[in-house]
Write a structure and sequence with these properties.
With 211 residues, this protein is mainly α. Helices cover 90% and strands 0% of the residues. It contains 7 helices and no strands. 30% of the residues are buried. Keywords: Cell membrane, Membrane, Protein transport, Transmembrane, Transmembrane helix, Transport. It is a multi-pass membrane protein. This is Outer membrane transport energization protein ExbB.
Length: 211
């Protein structure tokens, strides 16, 4: 613990902005991860309940089920089933679901891009801290005696490099978290698209049987 505190203190003023960036990034990552896992679980649950009802052709019951649920998948199916009750064309139902997807996807991606931005900011703060530390170091060396210059310069450069190191130690995990959340979001979007196609095929198949 002492070593960590000493490392932080030696990094200078810019260690504090980097620490703030790290805290904000972790907060965003945790909130997004919890949200996406909840969305994934809710979508899986409602689809397991609605799919058998769609296969049976009981669209009124399916419409009632998705209207009572607040999951992302229910919102998409609700738009399609609402159009199904008014029209028979597959294209109209598909357009309604695509319109709903355009509203859902931005909510899934919300705040995730900030992690990549914060990663870059942490790196830049680290470099800025190092440059400012080196400027201070060379200014101090200029006024030091020849015997002290080497030792003073080495100590100052070591302190300045701590800031760059901390910036990279912050940036790399944030980039990894960004990649993981982006992958999870993509999986959810793909599952929604798959459900959309399955629901459309089921509705079309049952509609053809009626004629």
């Amino acid at each position: 613990m002492y070593g960590i505190v000493s490392f932080f203190q030696m990094g200078g003023f810019f260690m504090f902005p980097i620490l703030l960036v790290l805290a904000v990034g972790i907060a965003i990552a945790v909130e997004r991860w919890i949200h996406l896992k909840r969305v994934k679980a809710e979508n899986s649950r409602i689809w397991d309940e609605v799919h058998p009802v769609l296969v049976e052709g009981d669209f009124d019951k399916a419409r009632e089920m998705v209207n009572e649920d607040k999951s992302a998948l229910s919102q998409m199916l609700a738009m399609g089933l609402a159009r199904q009750g008014a029209v028979r064309r597959r294209e109209d139902i598909e357009i309604a679901m695509e319109e709903s997807m355009m509203e859902i996807v931005p909510q899934l991606e919300k705040r995730t891009p900030y992690l990549a931005l914060l990663s870059n900011i942490a790196t830049l703060f680290g470099l800025l801290g190092t440059i400012m530390g080196l400027i201070t170091a060379f200014a101090a060396v200029a006024n030091a005696s020849p015997a002290e210059k080497a030792a003073l310069l080495a100590a100052s450069i070591s302190e300045a490099m701590n800031c760059t190191a901390f910036g990279l130690m912050t940036a790399i995990p944030l980039l990894l978290l960004h990649a993981r959340l982006t992958t999870t979001t993509g999986q959810i979007v793909n599952s929604l698209e798959m459900v959309s196609v399955k629901a459309l095929n089921t509705i079309s198949t049952f509609t053809k049987r009626q004629y």
